[in-house]
Amino acid sequence: xxxxxxxxxxxxxxxxxxxxxxxxxxxxxxxxxxxxxxxxxxxxxxxxxxxxxxxxxxxxxxxxxxxxxxxxxxxxxxxxxxxxxxxxxxxxxxxxxxxxxxxxxxxxxxxxxxxxxxxxxxxxxxxxxxxxxxxxxxxxxxxxxxxxxxxxxxxxxxxxxxxxxxxxxxxxxxxxxxxxxxxxxxxxxxxxxxxxxxxxxxxxxxxxxxxxxxxxxxxxxxxxxxxxxxxxxxxxxxxxxxxxxxxxxxxxxxxxxxxxxxxxxxxxxxxxxxxxxxxx
Length: 280
Known about the structure:
globular
């Protein structure tokens, strides 16, 4: 049975669909947290019913997740042998991704019902204070679930986008904490502090334990961050809502295939490629 947004989001605590002093207070608190250290968490944004429905949806879609493995530095750049060996740009770590693409989630399912909830997009935009703010139009990537299993984690990195919007759905038995060094890249690259974080000697690192139902807004371009490795048989599920600065944007074919294992006709059309000329 389909549920509406009121059954999935705690609209009493977070009245995202109603203008007024209570909504204004939530927005101001989130803005203050973002200004202070680039991270804001809305605890128990979802109802228990929503957490159960999302977990069921993720479990059902999990076989369609695409796994990829590579080695990367914190900047997602290639090695530069001209730099000193101990430069953080030359330190590479194993990275594993497992994303369940967006087209596995039905319009009436819990994940898309939350994404389409009245006021959700405007609330996120108001919190982030982004003037140019559009839903990602990519049918494989507008709202996805990151799936991680035992041994997985996500090594230290800076994001390439201005912000991320994520929703915790299920945690592993152990591990999976979100660790970040707030805004250390705000005034230049700050390679010295990056090195301390990688060495485990920085006093800037904060540890955040997210719980199922928590909504997180994070400015990861400037804050080095990682997800600690997981332990136990239970998968970690996190939903990712994607927004961009231009309308009707979709991913480039090669990048889309790297992340999701396939492309759709729209990716080829936007890139000016013919389907019969592209080997998937």
